[in-house]
Amino acid sequence: MIAYDFTGRHAVVAGAGGGMGEAITLALLDAGASVTAIDVKQRPASLAAYDDRLAFAQGDLTDAAFVEQTIGTAGRERGGIDYLA
């Protein structure tokens, strides 16, 4: 398996509350990235071990005000956004 090092990188992951989005979030965190995870569902328990590098925003991505606020905050607090998934 190929190992990636995303240390110092920041990703925003939509649909992070389950399924593929949750798996992508966990893979990025395991590779050292900080992640802003977004979903309409509650934060999954599997993400609890990553509180130092994880911000979880619960909300609807069809709500423009929510998206603007969440992405703006993510970029400011983490020094920009390197990846979007």
List the helices and strands and how they pair.
Layout (H helix, E strand, L loop, with lengths): L9 E5 L4 H12 L3 E6 L14 E5 L5 H14 L5 E2 L1
Parallel strand pairs: 1-2, 1-4, 2-3
Can you describe this structure?
There is one protein chain. The protein has one domain (about 10-85): 3-Layer(aba) Sandwich (Rossmann fold), CATH 3.40.50. Strand 1, helix 1 (about 20-30) and strand 2 (about 35-40) form a beta-alpha-beta unit. The protein has two helices and four strands, in the order βαββαβ. About 20% of the residues are buried. The two termini are about 20 Å apart. The longest helix has 14 residues, at about 65-75. It has helices at about 20-30, 65-75; strands spanning about 10-15, 35-40, 55-60, 85.
Search tags:
85 residues; alpha/beta; 2 helices; 4 strands; 31% helix; globular
Quick description:
With 85 residues, the chain is α/β, with parallel strands linked by helices. The protein has two helices and four strands.
Radius of gyration, rounded?
12 Å
Order of adjacent strands in the largest pleated sheet: 3-2-1-4
Order of helices and strands: EHEEHE
Flag low-confidence runs.
Answer: none
